[in-house]
TrEMBL record:
Lineage of source species: Bacteria, Bacillati, Actinomycetota, Actinomycetes, Micrococcales
Keyword list, A-Z: Membrane, Transmembrane, Transmembrane helix
Pfam families listed in its UniProt record: ABC_cobalt (PF09819)
The name this protein goes by in its record: Uncharacterized protein
Organism: Subtercola vilae
Positions of transmembrane segments: 21-42, 62-79, 86-103, 109-127, 134-157, 163-186
Length: 208
C-alpha cells in the first residue's frame, strides 16, 4: 500500500511539473514582453558596437549576441516548466519584430531556434536542475543555435576562421549574458519576494 501511495505521489509530482498555471503564463509573458523591448533596443546598439568589433576581427561581433539570448534562460529559471525557455524567447522575438527590427521576419526564426537551444539543455537535466552550471549551459545551447541560424541566413559561405570565431564569441557572450546574468537576475528578483509563488522564489528564500 505504501509503495502504491508513493507511486501515486511521484506521478502527481510529474504531472504538476508539466502543467502550466495561469500565473506561469502571465509571468512568462511579462518576461517575454520585457525582454522583447530589450531585444529591440539591443538591435539599435548592434551596429555601433558590432561593426567596430567586426572590423577589428571578422566574427568578433559574436560577443554582442548574448543580448538576444537571455529571455529563454531567464524564463526557464523563473517558471521551471517544460517549454518555458522556448515560450519566453519566442514571445520576446515576436515583440521586437512587431516594434520593428532590421532583420524583419528572420527575428522570429532566430527566437524559435534560440529558444529551442536553451530548452534542450533544461530537458537534458529533466527540468529538475536550475543551478548556475545548468544556466550557463543553457546560454551555450542558445548561442550554438543562434550561430547555426546566423551562419546559414546572414553569413552564408563564410570561411572556417570566421565560423570558428563567430561561434566561439557567441558562446562566450551566451555564457556571460544569457547564462550568468540571467541566473543572477533570477536570484535578485526572487529575493524581493516577487517569485514567492514559484519554486525559484521559495528556493531562494530557503537559502537566505
Amino acid at each position: 500500500m505504501q509503495t502504491a501511495t508513493a507511486r501515486i505521489g511521484v506521478s502527481a509530482a510529474r504531472s504538476s511539473l508539466g502543467r502550466w498555471r495561469v500565473v506561469d503564463i502571465i509571468v512568462a509573458s511579462v518576461i517575454g514582453v520585457a525582454a522583447g523591448l530589450i531585444f529591440w533596443g539591443w538591435g539599435l546598439a548592434y551596429n555601433p558596437i558590432g561593426t567596430p568589433l567586426e572590423a577589428a576581427l571578422p566574427g568578433l561581433q559574436g560577443l554582442v549576441n548574448g543580448g538576444w539570448l537571455f529571455a529563454g534562460v531567464l524564463g526557464a529559471l523563473v517558471i521551471r516548466k517544460p517549454g518555458a525557455a522556448l515560450y519566453t524567447e519566442l514571445v520576446a522575438a515576436i515583440v521586437s519584430a512587431l516594434i520593428g527590427t532590421q532583420w524583419g521576419p528572420w527575428t522570429l526564426v532566430s527566437g524559435l531556434t534560440q529558444g529551442i537551444g536553451a530548452e534542450i539543455v533544461f530537458a537534458l537535466f529533466l527540468y529538475s536542475s536550475y543551478r548556475l552550471g545548468v544556466a550557463l549551459l543553457a546560454g551555450v545551447g542558445a548561442a550554438v543555435a543562434l550561430s547555426i541560424t546566423d551562419l546559414i541566413v546572414s553569413y552564408p559561405g563564410s570561411d572556417t576562421p570566421f565560423i570558428i570565431i563567430y561561434t566561439v564569441t557567441s558562446i562566450i557572450s551566451g555564457v556571460v549574458i544569457a547564462g550568468l546574468l540571467s541566473w543572477l537576475a533570477m536570484r535578485g528578483i526572487a529575493r524581493t519576494g516577487a517569485l514567492s509563488r514559484f519554486a525559484s522564489g521559495r528556493e531562494s528564500a530557503v537559502r537566505v
